[in-house]
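Example 4.3 (complexes with small molecules)
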Amino acid sequence: MEQTLAILKPDCVRRGLIGEVIRRIEAAGFRIRAMKMVHLTKKEAEGFYAVHRGRPFFEELTTFMSSGPCVPMVLEKENAVADFRALIGATDPAEAAEGTIRREFAESKGQNIVHGSDSVENARIEIHFFFPSIELVDRR
Ligand code: UDP
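Answer. The structure with uridine-5'-diphosphate bound is encoded below.
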């Protein structure tokens, strides 16, 4: 079974949307295999998004991601990586398909409610960024 790393971003937590977004994730057939709430430091956010270092939005993104608590979780499902990207929609909510989580709730391209890994390999790396193996329900 494939796994992906999702993060309910600080805007999701701040706006009281944790329950609503998790409801949609479960309704779409994902099983939650790990979950917690953490408040990233700026340095930790920079580490998580290291691939974007140097991009014009890097400073704003890492300031936002360290602005309050977020909820990383490991989701499991067949085809989890692609199916979760489809559930959340395009980065920019204005371009996200009708019915997707970002289209419904995101206020901007930067503050877009939720993160989802973009490949199986990155999912593995991102899962281990947040979760030591003792916190994974189904260790591997
Ligand atoms: N981002 C932004 N401006 C941009 C592109 C991205 O603020 O022009 C932020 C946004 O929060 C996005 C994150 O940086 O979710 C990571 O960007 P990526 O291109 O990986 O988008 P994602 O995979 O999250 O859709």
